Amino acid sequence: MQKRLAARPARTIGAAEAAGLVRSGMWLEYGGIFSQPDLFDAALAARIGELRDVGIRSALTMRPRASIEADPAGAHVHLTSLHFGGYDRKLGDAGRCHYMPVNLGEIPDYYRRFIDPVDIVVIKARPADADGMMNFGPANLYYRAFIERARCVVVETSATIPHAHGVDNGVHVSEVDYLIAGDDAPVPTLPNPPPTEADQAVARLIAAEIEDGACLQIGIGGMPNAVCALLADANVKDLGIHTEMLPDGLAALYRRGLISGARKRLDPGKVVYTFAVGSQALYDTIDGNPDLLCNALDYTNMPHVIMQNPKAVAINSTTQVDLTGQAASEADGPRHISGTGGQAQFVRGAYASDGGKSFICLPSTYDKRGQRRSRIVPQLTPGTTVTTTRADMMYVVTEYGLVNLKGKSAPERARLLIGIAHPEFREELERAAHGMGLLPRGIAPGGPPS
């Protein structure tokens, strides 16, 4: 850990005084999830009309930002997100928030090499312990990197943030310029909707592929969590976890004693993650628990790290797959909805692992304005961003089947993907594939061109 040394001992100030440090043209770093400040942000909102061209960088915003709400025309402050949450998406639709394209695991390097300026870091952390460390809680992410670069560091304390063990998962009080005594508001939770029938069908197909000693990465969504629910009752031994997000599904496996990590090469016996968001039960599982390590993104998400654990298994969701195997997981046409996150990096890391597997899962259809549409399409919606390239794609899973695209030609891929589309759309997809030249004349069903 590269330590930042503050110019003077940290001084406790009020939120209004801290907001008074902001000048027009500055860039503020708010971090992500429940690390984003509330008292400071409300105080900034009170004076936002005095400022111009203030930028805020953040990720996965879970609560409305007072400073943004106080400037509905966007004349004074703008938001840049490294990964959209629901609130960021709403602002994006209104032109008030813009996405920074990132592979999540590379963000610490972006701050150390490319992002400038980093004027003021303002994040929440736990109050200092006896050694002067202020724990970030279950959100390590890229915080150490922007603290190293910051011209000023402000910490808003919150004792309600669960204490998360991990490597460099905190900031020492000697690195902090100003402290704001927090209001100890409850940590935001994220509900877990019950799995659909399609989620459960996909989960059964994936769970059958998970072997003893597998090291799991589970993304956000009902399908990945449904896999966890099935594994809880499966006879699979020595599961491990090396993941980006720690969702409720993985924490439930840990609480049931099904996560040993015994066959991991990195951090054997430990659950490794970079952020957690979910229920209060998840936060209670993390709080003070040395079995769970919250580490930085450049450790959890880089493919050369992921691959070191044998049988790495990456399970992630997408919204659309075309007939060559491209996955669009972050946008609907030009409309941005989430982010690249760690999907592409875990797909590559799992594939490179000894015995590893990557699964991209999706329901075969969705409803739009009362009309059922296929998520497997001849071509992605115009303007849609590709998250996982066709060359990287391994297993694709819908409720109608599981196919492996590695080593398959374009016509073979088209046939396989049509076979797991909803039956209502298969004939239409086949006609489109012929029209695009993906299924040339003479191709045998399921076979290569004659």
Automatic annotation (TrEMBL):
Keywords: Transferase. InterPro entries: AcetylCoA_hyd_C, AcetylCoA_hyd_C_sf, ActCoA_hydro, ActCoA_hydro_N, NagB/RpiA_transferase-like. Residues 12-191 form the Acetyl-CoA hydrolase/transferase N-terminal domain. Residues 278-433 form the Acetyl-CoA hydrolase/transferase C-terminal domain. Belongs to the acetyl-CoA hydrolase/transferase family. This is 4-hydroxybutyrate CoA-transferase. It comes from Paracraurococcus ruber.
